[in-house]
What we know:
binds fe (ii) ion
Amino acid sequence: MREAxxxxxxxxxxxxxxxxxxxxxxxxxxxxxxxxxxxxxxxSTRTALVDTVHPSFAAPFLExxxxxxxxxxxxxxxxxxxxxHAGALAGVLQxxxxxxxxxxxxxxxxxxxxxxxxxxxxxxxxxxxLDLGGRHLRFFITxxxxxxxxxxxxLEEDAILFTCDAxxxxxxxxxxxxxxxxxxxxxxxxxxxxxxxxxxxxVQKALARLEGLPLRVIAPSHGPILDRDPAxxxxxxxxWSTPADTAGKAAVVYASAYGNxxxxxxxxxxxxxxxxxxxxxxxxxxxxxxxAADLVxxxxxxLVGSPTIMGDVAHPIWExxxxxxxxxxxxxxxxxxxxxxxxxxxxxxxxxxxxxLGFRLVVPALRVPLAPASQDLEHIGELAGNFxxxxxxxxxxxxx
Length: 400
Ligand SMILES: Cc1cc2nc3c(=O)[nH]c(=O)nc-3n(C[C@H](O)[C@H](O)[C@H](O)COP(=O)(O)O)c2cc1C
Ligand SMILES: [Fe+2]
Ligand SMILES: [Fe+2]
C-alpha cells in the first residue's frame, strides 16, 4: 500500500497488516478476513506507536517500522494486550529497548502474564497526557471493550480516537478509508454483536465518556479507518447497546427425537401464553443455531427441554447453549424439563449449565418417563404457570 494512502494526518501513519485469508478469528467465522491496524504518531520531539499487529505479521511489521522510524518509537501505547494487537510488542521492545510501554493498570498485569519480561510500563489513567511535542495523547479507560485491560488513546490536536476493538470491522478492505467504501452498518453490526454485545453495559459507559469529544477520525484496530462520519458509529453503538424490552417475553427451547419432549414444550408454551407471556417456541434441531443469541437477548426467561440421550443433554441443545456466551444473560430466568427412558440425567446437567451461564433457575426441573401422560402435561402447565409468575415479579429488576 502506498504511504500517502496510509496517512491519517501529517505524521500520523497506518502501519498495520491486511489478513484477507483468515477464516477464524477468536473462534468467530470470518468471510472476508480481517486487518490489524497499528498507527505511528509523530510529534516534534517524540514518536508513539499505537498497538501492533498479530504475531503472524510481526516480521514485515518490524521491517516497515524500522524503515519509517529507524530510531524506534519513544512510546508503545498498548490499548489492549490481546495478541492480535500486542503480537509484535516483544519484537518491538527487543529492537528498541528504550521504548516505553504505555497501558492501563489491568494491561500492565496482563502484559506480565503474557510476556513474563518484567516490563515496567507507564500505567496511565484518564488524567494522563503524553507529550509528543506539539501533539498530545490522552486516554479513555474502557474496560471490557474488549478485555478488562482495554483503553482508547486520543490525539488531541488532530481529534483522532484510537479505539482498538471498539467500532472495528472484521474484513480486509479494498481501501483503508471508510469514505471510499459502501456503508459499514451491516459489518459493524455483525462485529458489535459478536464481540461487544456481551459487554453492552460497558459499551454504554464508554459512550457516555466519549460524549462531546471532538472527533475527526476514529482509528480502530480492525477494518477501515472511520473518516466519513465518526459520530455515526457512536450513534450505532448507542442504538445497538440499548437493551431490548424483554419484560413479559419468554422462549421455550427444546429438542426431541420422538416427540415426547416436544409435547411438553408445546404444553409449556401454551400455559405461558395463557398467563399473558409472549412466547417463542424454538425447536433447536430445526432452527439455525446462529439465531440463538438474538432469541435469548430478546427474552427475560428461558424454559429448556431436552430428552436424555446416552446419559447427556441432546446435541442440538448443546449447540444452542454454545451460542449464549455472546449475549448478556446474567439474571435472566430459566427452568428445565425433558423426557427420559431410564436414567434421566439431562435435566440436572442442563440446570447446572444454565446456572453456570448466569441464569437464575426459578422452578424445579420436570422429568417425565417416556411419553407424557395427562398428569405430566398438567405438571408442565403448572411449571410454566409458576415460571410466568416469577417473570412478572422480577420484571422491575430485569436482567443485566
Ligand atoms: C439414542 C438414544 C439414547 C438414549 N439414552 C438414554 C439415556 O442414557 N438415559 C435415559 O434415561 N434415556 C435415554 N434414552 C431414552 C430417551 O430419553 C427417551 O426415549 C425419551 O422419551 C426421548 O424423548 P424425545 O421423544 O423427546 O426425544 C435414549 C434414547 C435414544 C434414542
Ligand atoms: Fe480483542
Ligand atoms: Fe482485536
